[in-house]
Amino acid sequence: RVFSLQYKGAIYHQLKPAGKEHARGFRQSPGIICKKGIYLGGAAYWYPDFGDSLVTFSLNVSLPAAWDAVCEGARAAHARDGRRTTIRWVSFSPCEAIHIVAAPFVEYDGQAGKTPLMVFLRSPDQDLADQYLKITARYLTLYENLIGPYPYKKFALVENFWETGYGMASFTLLGSRIIRFPFILYSSYPHEILHNWWGNSVFAAVEKGNWSEGLTAYLSDHLMKEIHGQGAAYRAETLQKYTDYVGEARDFPLTAFRSRHSGATEAVGYGKSLMVFHMLRHKLGDAAFVEGLRRFYNTFLFRFACFDDLQAVFEGIGGKPLDGFFKQWVTRAGAPELRVARPEVREEAGGAVLAATIEQVQTGPGYRLEVPVAVTLEGGSQAFESVVQMTRRSVRFALHVPARPLRLDVDPDFDVFRRLQPNEVPPALTQTLGSARLLVVLPSKAAEPVYEAYRGLALALRTSGPDEVEIRSDADLNALPDDRAVALLGGSNQLYREIFPALSEYGVSVGAQRVCIGKRSICRSGHTFVFTVRQVKRPTLGVTWIVVDPPEAFSGLARKLPHYQKYSYLVFEGPEPANIVKGRFPVDRSPMSVFLPGRDGTIRRVARAQPAPRAALASLP
After folding, report:
1. How far is CA 303 from CA 92, 187, 262, 307, in A?
2. What are 614's strand-pairing partners?
3. What pLDDT does 519 receive?
4. pLDDT above 80 for 21
């Protein structure tokens, strides 16, 4: 019943880009052993692999004295004798793969209830370690209360020697720069911790669709924003990313999602999926949704599960069939597109009747939708809220409201997964990087070294997301094309003035020495500017203007720019370059907001009334 295998060899797989991973710029390797460190994943086949079976293991590692190693499971032994470090890791819980990460680490320890916490850094940093130990304890408490007991004997944060964002069973592997970004503590970090519940202990049967990334994103990235009252804004950004990155040719059902390797796959596998869980929560109510999460976890702990299993669990909790819901959102590609038409107000005793039509205008069959609507009333600060049931492509609804309605907002908090209309959200870099076709225009009058630097930036944009990228000089063009997105490079570009009218509408003015964004004035020298506006004739396409100064900022900008895809404007400073200004232009003409005549027949653009307060699904201890 026992046999031994002995083998040896060198493992050094070069780091390679992870597809068009515009959002993070990560590289990956199945396995690498070098002087900087060791990373061995399951794909390196460094241990015997018996097909699709899960593994338990006892692992002994021998390393130089200054080195240490981290693995799944619990650390059963750890010794140094001056020449060697020996470690034994044991996992009685099954894993999909075994990973070894090793380097000359500095170890810090903590505790979260009964769970040991570890931090492995490549250089001493007590303050950084303390931050992670404290926030880790809070996240473990949050998710144990929300879902169920933490399934492993330890949790470790490990610093890698190249930039990664990996979540393994019982530890996460983050790159040296990433680990030191303050926002990571409240964005990527809870996401990787939560994977210990979804994906690393309840395994995704990915051949039927990877549900774990969407559920993890909803209960981490979205939940962190929801706790701080920013859930609606996060959902708007999620829908904008889907709208900008996922054209018809790039779309696919959730049952076909395996992993993220591009903007489109992220927008579907993470974005659409998290919106499906959001709609399921609203359909069932918070209490039933949380109970479903707990039952799903308890039922499938250390087992494989698929969307069908999720459906069965939530049907058992809610007591109602969900076949239609899962079929249209999980097995079907695409999204609904909504329009508001023919609003009408009729006075009646004690109030008024507001009638309007909501239409689905996408190609293909209609969807069954529950569409929230909010009405701003004359003299009232609180919105009148209701839900319109759409069982066909066009529905005429009537609301009896207690006062004169002045404004109607359809899905104002972006609770329905759908393809957004132009002008519903601000222009953003996603409309340039997410386009299927991109034209990059170089500044022909720039000095030769600057021109070549812009050409290098153009080549970087070529791998940022668009399927087809053409690079041309401004000397070859008389005007901007309107059949593709455009990136204008350089302050001397002969075509950049074409976007000045659009910028001025947002309060941006560009002078020879300074740029004004609203009330803020910034010197052009020493600063890099990025502005995105919509094309006039094709508002679904973006035009992005990039001006880089000083020249040393080019390489850093090419690396950093994809991290800021949701913004309309950016300002960076110095050679690093360091971001000092970022923002999204305001939206004041959304086609999903309809302004209605008052008693005197005048239509005024009144502010939206306050919605009823919403409680977050959970709170961070």
Report:
1. 14, 27, 28, 14
2. none
3. 93
4. no
